[in-house]
């Protein structure tokens, strides 16, 4: 729980309890003058044993009951005929070590406890849930003798990359998910453990593979594709100069890295990978598919600026065969079934484990 939330609740207690004290005094002074109607009290959806009363349209709840519901200690001193209300103390999560300053603003310290609480508020519960799940899965994998190596992780990352037309598309997908390659690599071992544990429960038959291939054959047919690189600039004059340099023997990749405005491909020397028709804007597509391998285009204008394009490879359209695709389809169907099983399996695993979570409900 963040310190901001804690302070907010303390302020609420003080205001709320002060109002109740005044109301209690009013009730004590004039209760005999009015008939009180008993009511039911519900706290967070649960019926309370406390019975409030309503007098002339005003509801009163015993100070002790409300104080304790709000986390305060309420004590009555008979000899002094007084009530003392004290907010319960809040234990700093890091103890005395949490008082250490990690920053300051104009001489006012920001402590480790403040940092810790802020981090908890920004996602601590989800982070702890993830850590609990990772540890559960690892323990189960260890029981079954499943070991995930660094080469397994690298192979999985490579498999994921193959699902994208180019390295640039893979990087863009990561950015859109708010992730880096390092983030993906940290998550991958748990996913691989789950897959290796659950794939033992999954059976994909040859008949199912064939049925899926025939129902989705168009997805596996290879359309005509080209592989191209480009250098994107803002003006025709810049594009003309780049074309001139390239024809004079300049290195395309180095010029792209130095000059291209396309941040998605410039680091790869302008390489866009393979793409089929319909993937690029019409002006770019028309020029790229008209070029032979190794040819350079004249400057091509699009809404993004001016492109100088070089085609580096070409693939003719080719119908897919079951023999070529059956291993890929079998793996795809198996992964779909593992995903469908994983939620229930994790729930079972959690139900059988002894788990403590100090952040639950905060």
UniProtKB/TrEMBL annotation:
InterPro entries: Mao_N_sf, PPIase_dom_sf, PPIase_PpiC, PPIase_PpiC_CS, PrsA_foldase. This is Peptidylprolyl isomerase. The keyword Hydrolase does not apply. GO terms for molecular function: peptidyl-prolyl cis-trans isomerase activity. Pfam families: Rotamase_3, SurA_N_3. Keywords: Isomerase, Rotamase. Residues 223-313 form the PpiC domain. PANTHER family: PEPTIDYL-PROLYL CIS-TRANS ISOMERASE HP_0175-RELATED, PEPTIDYLPROLYL ISOMERASE. The keyword Isomerase applies.
